[in-house]
Design brief:
It is built from 15 helices and 15 strands. The strands form 3 sheets. An 8-stranded parallel barrel has the order 1-2-3-4-5-7-12-13, surrounded by 5 helices. A 5-stranded mixed sheet has the order 6-8-11-10-9, with helices on one face. The chain has a single domain, classed as Alpha-Beta Barrel (TIM Barrel), CATH 3.20.20.80. By secondary structure, the chain is α/β, with parallel strands linked by helices. Bound molecules: 6-O-phosphono-beta-D-galactopyranose. The site of 6-O-phosphono-beta-D-galactopyranose has 15 residues, from loops.
């Protein structure tokens, strides 16, 4: 099958902090990346792709290249510089203009309320581990619904809870840079799901028009051998990174099989999960009311059993083969020689996307519909004669779109695809050398150049067929 479903969205994704730059415009407050990155002094996110000023040009490119959907996120600290309290009218008006420009160009905005960018005052209170954070987030969301609700048809509550906690509490490359703290990671995921649920409730109870969903990164996990021990390692990482969040999303609770693995991981890591009955009521409500889920998919993992202490090395430089990821009480990710990897050691495995889409349909029959809200290939692109010959990226995207069409043929409802990313953007832990865009950005001049992939994407979107 090569035909996309009718009205399929051929989109592209961005996130505020990675694209906008302009960190000193208006009264914008800091999120937790600003001081951390400044102290490190390795990457400067202050200009990024200058989307704050260049969005008219970027949206004109969308129109020209057949891109009819865009993921944007609202930077919380442009609206509430301190996370709560005083509102900055300049920030409020910026997002009106941005959303209006999307609509004027025929590009449907999918608007994310939290994409890795907690305001500093709330970060200091404990981020998603604190109840103040949840309360403030619900207020911020309600403000956005009120302000932009008449023109936004698709809202996303939170981007990738798993990546947030993996970065903050397991890998340690997101502030507060803790490592191997699985209990904090699990608690924070639960709290994020409760916050998501409260926002869904607010949205639905306010009689708002439009749809609301959440975006999860979902990477399939496979045992590297048929041994029971390796199978168990793969299952544990799957439950930790995928199923725990999916159960909360669609069941509104943690099923017995999920809970037995999560409680085992908590016990091995001397932790416990605190929950309240009210939280499960909210989760239940949201599970029944959620309109869609976005899946971000880049890679899958192969696992073997592991009995040592946790050990991780994050490959943030593109030095192939340098990654280590082993978690106490879970398992160890290993290289599968049959599967190619990117320079950042991400296994390229489209079958993992098809398997995941089918898994969601089968385990959660109430899922309603899905979008692939991020997928793409980070590479060390070279601009030659005004373009980039990014054949590897086209191959990567083609294979993943085929995997989506295979899943559609198996009855999974997938209504759109958003390539990560629209243009080259700032990568949180890899800086500017890991490029994903359909449009190359010269970060010195901020000029945009369509890559070969942009022309290929246009052909596909215009024909509605995978070529
Ligand atoms: C996702 C995030 C994006 C983006 C992407 C690529 O997890 O939602 O914000 O960064 O991954 O990741 P990276 O930039 O680390 O290569």
């Amino acid at each position: 099958m090569h035909n996309f479903p009718k009205n399929f969205i051929f989109g592209a994704a961005t996130a505020a902090y990675q694209a906008e730059g302009a960190v000193n415009e208006g009264k914008r407050g800091k999120n937790y990346w600003d001081d951390y990155l400044a102290e490190q002094g390795v990457f400067d996110p202050s200009t990024a792709s200058d989307f704050y000023h260049k969005y008219p040009e970027d949206l004109a490119l969308c129109k020209e290249f057949g891109i009819n959907g865009i993921r944007i996120s609202i930077a919380w600290t442009r609206i509430f510089p301190q996370g709560t309290g005083e509102v900055d009218p300049a920030g409020v008006s910026f997002y009106h203009q941005l959303i209006d420009a999307c609509l004027a160009n025929g590009v449907e905005p999918f608007v994310t309320l939290h994409h890795f960018d907690t305001p500093v005052p709330l970060f200091k209170k404990g981020d998603w581990l604190s109840t103040e954070m949840t309360a403030a987030y619900v207020e911020f969301a309600a403000f956005c619904f009120q302000e932009y609700g008449s023109k936004v048809n698709y809202w996303i509550t939170i981007n990738e809870p798993w990546s947030v906690v993996a970065g903050q509490y397991i890998i340690g490359h997101f502030p507060p840079n803790l490592q191997y703290d699985l209990p904090k990671a699990i608690q924070s995921m639960h709290n994020m799901m409760v916050a998501h649920a409260q926002v869904v409730k607010k949205f639905k109870q306010s009689g708002q028009s439009g749809e609301i969903g959440i975006v999860h990164i979902l990477e399939s996990k496979y045992p590297i051998s048929n041994s029971e021990a390796d199978k168990s390692a793969a299952l544990k990482e799957h439950v930790l990174a995928n199923q725990f969040l999916l159960d909360a999303t669609f069941k509104g609770n943690y099923s017995e099989d999920t809970w037995s693995i999560i409680s085992g991981i908590l016990a091995e890591n001397q932790g416990e999960l605190r929950t309240t009955p009210q939280e499960f009521e909210d989760l239940q409500f949201a599970a029944e009311q959620i309109d869609f889920m976005g899946i971000n998919y880049y890679a899958s993992h192969f696992l073997q059993a592991y009995s040592g202490e946790s050990q991780i090395h994050h490959n943030g430089t593109g030095e192939k083969g340098s990654s280590v990821f082993a978690l106490k009480g879970v398992g160890e990710r290993v290289n599968n020689p049959a599967i190619p990897t990117t320079d950042w050691d991400w296994p390229i495995y489209p079958q993992g996307l098809e398997d995941m889409l089918v898994f969601v349909k089968e385990r959660y029959p109430n899922y309603n519909k899905l979008y692939v809200t991020e997928n793409g290939m980070g590479d060390k692109d070279k601009l030659v004669d005004g373009t980039v010959t990014d054949t590897a990226r086209i191959d990567y995207v083609r294979l993943h779109l085929q995997a989506i069409l295979n899943a559609v043929e198996k009855g999974v409802k997938v209504e759109g695809y958003f390539i990560w990313s629209l243009m080259d953007v700032f990568s949180w832990t890899n800086g500017y050398t890991k490029r994903y865009g359909l449009f190359y950005v010269d970060f010195d001049t901020q000029a945009r150049y369509p890559k070969e992939s942009a022309y290929w994407y246009r052909k596909m979107s215009q024909s509605g067929q995978l070529s």
